[in-house]
Structure formats: structure tokens, C-alpha cells
Amino acid sequence: MSKSTGCCQGFLHYAFDYETPKTLIIPSIRVGFVFRFTQFLLLLYVVGYVCVVQKAYQDRESVISTVTTKVKGFAFTNISNMQPRFWDVVDYNIPPQGDDSFFVLTNMVMTPGQTQSRCPELPTPSTTCVDDCDCVEGYNDPRGNGIQTGLCENYSSTVKTCEPTSFSLLAEAENFTVLIKNSITYPKFNFHKRNILSHINSTYLKTCEFNRQTHPDCPIFRLKHIVSEAGEDFQDMAVKGGVLGILIDWSCDLDWWARKCYPKYTFRRLDNKHPVNNVALGYNFRFAKYYRTAEGEEVRTLIKAYGIRFDVIVFGTAGKFGIVPTIVNLGAALSFLSLVPMLADWFILTCMKKRDLYSRQKSTYLVEESEAESASLSTTYGTQ
Amino acid sequence: MSKSTGCCQGFLHYAFDYETPKTLIIPSIRVGFVFRFTQFLLLLYVVGYVCVVQKAYQDRESVISTVTTKVKGFAFTNISNMQPRFWDVVDYNIPPQGDDSFFVLTNMVMTPGQTQSRCPELPTPSTTCVDDCDCVEGYNDPRGNGIQTGLCENYSSTVKTCEPTSFSLLAEAENFTVLIKNSITYPKFNFHKRNILSHINSTYLKTCEFNRQTHPDCPIFRLKHIVSEAGEDFQDMAVKGGVLGILIDWSCDLDWWARKCYPKYTFRRLDNKHPVNNVALGYNFRFAKYYRTAEGEEVRTLIKAYGIRFDVIVFGTAGKFGIVPTIVNLGAALSFLSLVPMLADWFILTCMKKRDLYSRQKSTYLVEESEAESASLSTTYGTQ
Amino acid sequence: MSKSTGCCQGFLHYAFDYETPKTLIIPSIRVGFVFRFTQFLLLLYVVGYVCVVQKAYQDRESVISTVTTKVKGFAFTNISNMQPRFWDVVDYNIPPQGDDSFFVLTNMVMTPGQTQSRCPELPTPSTTCVDDCDCVEGYNDPRGNGIQTGLCENYSSTVKTCEPTSFSLLAEAENFTVLIKNSITYPKFNFHKRNILSHINSTYLKTCEFNRQTHPDCPIFRLKHIVSEAGEDFQDMAVKGGVLGILIDWSCDLDWWARKCYPKYTFRRLDNKHPVNNVALGYNFRFAKYYRTAEGEEVRTLIKAYGIRFDVIVFGTAGKFGIVPTIVNLGAALSFLSLVPMLADWFILTCMKKRDLYSRQKSTYLVEESEAESASLSTTYGTQ
């Protein structure tokens, strides 16, 4: 009909004629139940799992964080071949600034009075000279630093090193505490928070100490407690050193629980304690204090420091309602909903007794041109 | 009928017979308009919001970055009880290497001449000995370091500390500048860039200073300017210290604007200035310089350093066309498009005057077997 | 029909009547082939590209990592105007702790004996005094540190600096090695691993050296090798300094290849060697060693250190089967599958010879009320 009218009307027909599929209604409770039940299961999945459990309707963003740490506590050592000595944070905490990785010295090998200009014990400067110097000096003349056993172990094929004793110098370090201040930002969601929560007052902060049960929000941690929560023994770890992770998880749902967005602390040893291959154990580094003698010569005290490096690792993603992920997930769910009729069709055409009846009334075979005349007429009769 | 022929042909029919829904065409402008308009709205959403605004067709990757910083400037102090003294970057910048977190000392409490071996003022070494030593010495004998007021405040229940005066020592620090060099990489997209853009020449770099209006690309920042953009007062912050974030946002669209991928700088104080609970304010740490006396005894000068720690935080995600997100988002939009006919059907069967007419011609009730005989007879005839 | 019965039954009908589209079966191999082939292409895309190549069925998480580094090796310098001197890790590695960014000093300008209290050469303390002091002293009296040429270059309009010679002091640094220990975690997948793989034993670790072909798993790197893999020349880089990235990629498929999750090392210079604008080249910083003279005066040795900063950058995402991304991607693919019938319909109604036949039997025009009675009989006529 549209072809008989003008071009414009033809276009109107083309654009605005609404084409809707013809349907066959099957008034069978059984079929209907299978259909609705499958729809219900899918809806349950979408609402229950995708929305409630996975929160797939949310935009996500990773945390941006800044950490300052402050170690407190001090120790007193009174070992036979060393003068009684106090150790405060300045002596054992390296570097001193207190950023997200701090080192607490627990053991050391000290070699004082080194000069860098010559190495008298070794006639030829070889690649192991400095290390051997240290070690030979340490061996021959412990000179009151008391921690070096004087035993030289083969460290690698070319370098020797001096092993410390099996007890740590600063055993008291386990009672040091560290205050961790952590501010986080989710820039996309304009959300800022710090781990000193608003209900913590100075009185509480003066006395509290982190404990998962009794003080889960206190940002002050006793080193021994951290290490033992990580499943390690502080005194064991103190001898050879190690790396311990303080993991702060800021994963938050900013739609409903923005006010309940709290940091979750976990502790984990980050270097292997007993790796299968038993290599590259512990954690230590060397540093020196440089002095100038009265004669103007530069001498240094070499310190091989063993201790625990604490790495504060802040991670987490925040989620907040976003239109794109919502659309994407709803769309995917809708796609599956559009599968349900296929499933129901398959069910009625395969499993039902009346499947031939359904099949006959649902599907029509194409009628060839010659027969079409009479047939298309009977088709419409059949559907009444 | 395909069943009457061979198995192979039956399979061919099963696999290649094309089954297409029968449709009813409703030549109503009103229905057609509702249908097309809804389709148009959805398309607008897909093209406009998902593609243009959210760029959901893009793969995303987080930035990998490296930062070096270099502070310049120096100060001159001439305070009553201290010798006139110059301060250059080596004295106030800790640590000196200039990585993504640098500290500028603005105030200090200095306690020279400490020995770690004994604490004469206190007969019994208690847990607060070292701190009290410092404080008592500072109190009794300010010894020309001039910054310590000598007042002892209760810092916590067990530890006392010495408060500095309310004006900062290095007030001139506000005029220091810092050059920030930042190179970034998006490894998945093989995109590299640095914040010293290619149009910046050495002449410009010698004279420029970051200013959001006049010099938005200059990587040299005056500390006072950074602090004031963060909404703080430098002199206020200098007394007790603080942490200031220099946030560099490298979010870029690498499809169209790869050449316009510029860093965006923002500044934010990262520790709370006036937290509700008023605890753990400011930023300070202690460090020591170790000396050896002519007699070979080790002494140290303890410095409690107050200052501003600047954390350069680089973040951002780049997006570039990716086939998977495109497919996912188009697919989701298509799912919604497939909802439009349902909506239109609901509209014509509920809101239109002729709804009964439409309903009768669109849907057919299943005809039971008994009646089916005659009816389905004509139907099946038709399919022959 | 349902309206004649009670309300409850009406609802039952409404809820459980199953409405299935009536279909027309076209037994044409050609149409069927087009239909099935398009379906097959889409399936191929879904299985092949989305699942196998892009692994879009996986949940993703970014790596959390901790790094410790240990530099080994030492150098011997015997330059005319300086005493023969040994350099070990303590002297050239700054900071000493060995975290993910370490600096190896290769060149330096040393200015000993500075006092901060006065600047005799300059009568008026100007903003460039300290720097000028250094430079003038260096110029007039190289005083045996041997590295300073004594030439003063214009560094910026207000500050002068003293350039080092064009050969590096610690040329031997290229043979230093660094052991990188890197532990990673994917917290969501509870996956932990370190870069010292389980098949590496201590014997191997004592002798191995990273080489992409022969020792791809050895975590010990010769500095020269790192720099040359990054496409740079160590001696060139050593003079003015630079920043070199050691990129460790931990991207892993934890579904199938969790045991084959190995780190992949790449090396890249992170500062521009020859930027277009030729500004802000190299890497250096100043630090000082503080001494006290016999008279108790504090003096410092100022060192301008040139060298290579090595930044260990750990990145990567792990993927593991996740129900939500699977559903989303399958859903999107299904949406496209639902497009295939539209495509096939368009094909049969446009490109086929019998398109009018198909069209007549597929679509029926709405018949108006008045005619409807007789007409549902003549529906198909109307479309002819």
C-alpha cells in the first residue's frame, strides 16, 4: 500500500510503521512456571550476586595514600666487652624521617677506625680487600664492640663476611612502639580520610595500643605484637633481620558505608623465612659514620646493621555508584534474560507431551509462491 | 516432513532452516514515534554519555612514574643566642637524594654534646631517660641554640618533650623553590612523557616559576606558593611541621589528545591541620650528627627537626581504544535496545485506544487438540 | 478468555501464560548458511579473542610489592691530586638501606672544610653566597680533590655551579652488581611469590649473573649490563648522572599458569638523555659530612654527587576467573548474537530473489476494526 503513495509517505511508513512479533499464547501452568522460574533465578543472580555481593554497579578507584611513622622506645645494653649504652630512636631508626618504610636496628657488627686510604693487612688490593679488612680486624681485635663473634663464613665465592652472634643486641626492641599516621584520598570520589579516626582523642592515643579485639582502631603498634601477628618470633627475626609488611586495606563502599570506611590492618612477613632454596635470607645493610681525627684524617666506623624493615603498604579500592558499570551489568543480565524464552521454547518443543501441537501452531513452513494463494488464507484461519 | 527424508537431510534442515519471527506491522505514527523516540534516546545515551563523556570504549591503565626533586634556595639566621649562620640545601633538605618525598626543615630543637653512655642527671635509667636528658639539658642550658624555649610540655603520660617557640627558625624557607622532574610511562600503550614539556627551553626554565594562570607548565614551584594553593599559611605550618601533597594528575586520552597529555598539578595538605580530635599534629622527627671528641669519645648532637614534608604523588589513568570494552559497552547498549520493543508493545497494548484490536491480531491463543484437527490441518497443509 | 474467569485465575493467566513468538521457517540453504556463518564468526570472536587472547573472563588485580636491593663491588681510585682511596658500598651507595630506589655514586665535586658561619670571600651575603663560596673555593684551591675542573659555568641566571670533568671518578662502578629481592602479593587471589624462584639454590646464586638468554631468572644484575640493555653507555651516563628504571613485570594468568608466574625484567632510562629542549639533564644532589674540629667548631665537607639512581618499578596485573566479568562479556556477546537474526532478516528481505514472498509471509499489516471480522481472513491479501 505504501508504495502506491508518494515518496515522502513511503519514508514515513518505513520509519514509523511499528513491526511487532506475532505471538502464540500457551496457557500452560507448567510451561509458564519453567519460564518464570528461570527468569526469577536470573533476577536473583543479578540482584543478589552482581549487585549485593560483587557491587558491580560501582565505579572503582585505587587508593592514593601518604604515610608517616614515628617509632618510640629505647633500649639499654650492657654487654661484657662494650660500655653500657643507651639506644634511642635516633640511633636505631634508619632513615630518621619516618616515611612508609622504616628500619629498626636489632643487631650489628661494628668495625671502628677504618681508613679508606690503605689496607695494610693485604699486600695487593684485590676485589675482596675492604670486606676482608673488616673481617680480619673484627676477627683479630673485636675491640669491645662485643657483637661480632669473629667467625668468618664464606658468603660468596669471593667475599667473606663476619657473622653476628645468635642473640640479638637490641632484644628490647620488641617493646618499641610505632605510631602510624596514614591519610588516604580517592580523588575521583573526592573522599579523604586518615587512620586516626575522629572518635580517637588525645587521651586515648596516649594510652592505647593496637589489639585486634580490644583496640582495633588504635594506630599505635607494639613491634612484638606486629611480628607475632605475622606468625613470626621477634627474637628469631631480630638476629638475621627481615622485612615485615604492615598492610593497610582501605577497601570501602562509599555508597552506603562511607562513614564506616575504616582501615583494616594485617601483618605479613615479606621475605621468606625458610625458602625452599634457603638463600638470600634476612635483611641487613652496611653504613658508616665518618669522623675526622685530630690530625685531619678521615676515619669511619663501619656498621653492618641487621634489623627489621617495616614496610607500610596501603592498598584498597573504593566503589561508588557509576552509571556505566551499572548499564553494562544490567545489559549483560538482560542479554541472559533474552535467553530465557529460547530455553522455554526448547522446553516446550522437546519435553512437553503436546510438543507437536505447540510446534505446529508456533512455526509455519514457508509456502512456495504457487501454493501461497490458497495457503496464506488457511494460515490465518488456523490461528483464530 | 524432513523426518520422512534421510538422516543427513534432516540434519541439514535442522542446521540450516532459517526460522524468523512473523510480525504484525502497525501503521500508526503515534506508536512508531514512541518506538523511534525511545530508540533515539538510547542511542543518544550510548553515543553521548558512554562514548563521549565516559569514554567507556577505552582500555585503561594506571600510570608508572619516577620523580626526582631538587630544592634550591638558602637562608641566613641571626638569632640572639646563636652564631650567624647560613643554611643551604644540604643543611635543610633531608634526605638529600631528592626522590618523590623530600623534607624541608623549618624549625628545630638542638641538643648538642650528648653522650650515649650515661645520663648523669637521672640516677636511675628509666624509660624516659634519654628524652628527659635532652629536655633537662635544654632547659638548664640553652647553650646558644636559641630555638628551644626551655619549656617542657607533657607530650604523653610517660615522655616529656621540649616545645619550640611559636616562630619558625627558617622563615625564609617559604622562598625556596623546588624543581620537580617527573617521567611517566603507560607500558601497555607504550607511551612515555615527562613533565618538562618539549616546548620548555633552558632559558624559560631559568626564569619561570609555576603559576596556574601565567606559567601552568613550569616545573619549578615556590614553596610558599604550593602551601598557599593548598589553603595553608606557610609560617603557621613551619612551626609545627606538616605533610603537603603535590599531586600530579596524568589522566590522559591517548586516542585523540595524546599530544595534549599534560600533567595537572594540585596541592593538598595531607595531615589534618585541625582534626576534630586535635591529636598527633604536625610533623617532626629526630636525627643526630655524630662526632668524636679529641679523646675518641663519641658524642652526638641531637636535632628534633620540624618542617614540611612534601610528598609528590603521581596518579592518573590513560585510556586508549580497546576492542573488548567497546564490545562490552555496545553489547550492553544493544541489550537495552532490545528492551525498546517490549516497551512499545506494552504501550500499544495498554495505552492505545485500539489496544484490543492490536492484541487480537498480535497474539493468538493456543488451540486445543480437539479443535486443532481442523485448524492445525489447514496450518500444516500450509507448511507443506 | 481469562477475563471471563475469576480475578485469581486471571492473575495466574497473566503471570504464567507463556507467550512465544510465531515463526516462519524458511528452508533455504543459502539463508541458513549466511545465518549460521555469522553466528560462527561471532562465536569465534567470543571464544578466540575475548576469552583466549584478552582473557576478559578474568577478575584483575594490581600487584603489591616490596623490594630490597643490595649493591656489591668496590672501586679503587688513584688520581693525581687525591690520595689513593678505596670505595666500598658504604661510600658510594646512598641511602644505605637498599630499598626500591638506590643511588650509585659515580662522580663528585668535593669541597672540604666549609664552615657555615661566614663567607669571607663575599662581603655581602647574597642569595648565591653559599654556592659561590663553594665554587670560588673550588676554583682557587682545588685542594687535592682532583675531580673539580675549577671551571665555573652559568647554571641559572643567579646561581653558579662548578662542573666536574668529562670522565667519571668511579668508572669501575660499571662492574658493581646488585641483588634485587622482590616479594609480591595479589591479596584478592591470596597469591604470594618472590623473584628468587624456588629452583634457585645458593650455589647458583653465588655465581649467576642476569642474562636474558643464559640466566633469565638470576636476580643479580651487573650495572653495566642493565645500562647497556637500556640502550645507554655506562661511562657516558656516569659523568652527568641519570635515572635508570629496572621494570619488573609480574603480569600473570593465575588460572592456568600460576606456576609459570615469573618476573619479566626490562630496563629503561627514565630521564631524557637528549631531550629536545636540552634542559635539566642528568642527576645529581648535594650532601655533606659534618665534622667537629678540635676547637669544637663544626665544619662540613660538601659533596655534589653525580651518579645513577636505579628505580626498581614493580608493576603488573594478575587475572583469575571471575563470575562477574564472565557474565558481562558473555552477555555482551549474546547481545551481538541477537543481532544476527536482524542481519539475516535484512539479507532475505533485500538480497534474495524471493524477497517479496518472504516479506508477504513474514509480515502482516494490521487490519482495521471494521474490516477485522472478515479480514483476519484476508490479512495476507492486504499486504499484497
Characterise this structure.
3 copies of one chain form a homotrimer. Chain A is an alpha+beta fold. Chain A folds into 2 domains: 20-57 and 322-354, Helix Hairpins, CATH 1.10.287; 62-319, atp-gated p2x4 ion channel fold. Chain A is 32% helix and 32% strand. Chain A is built from 11 helices and 20 strands. Chain A has helices spanning 7-16, 29-53, 89-92, 129-140, 202-207, 223-229, 234-240, 323-337, 339-350, 355-362, 369-383, and strands at residues 18-21, 23-26, 58-62, 64-72, 75-77, 85-87, 93-94, 101-114, 148-154, 160-164, 177-186, 191-194, 220-222, 242-249, 252-253, 264-269, 284-292, 298-315, 317-321, 363-365. In chain A, the strands form 5 sheets. In chain A, strands 7, 8, 14, 16, 17 and 18 form a 6-stranded mixed beta sheet that branches. In chain A, a hairpin with a 5-residue loop joins β17 (284-292) and β18 (298-315). Chain A is elongated, with a radius of gyration of 38 Å. Chains in contact: A-B, A-C, B-C. At the A-B interface, α1, β1, β2, β4 and β6 of A face β2, α2, α4, β14 and β17 of B. β2 (23-26) of chain B pairs parallel with β20 (363-365) of chain C.
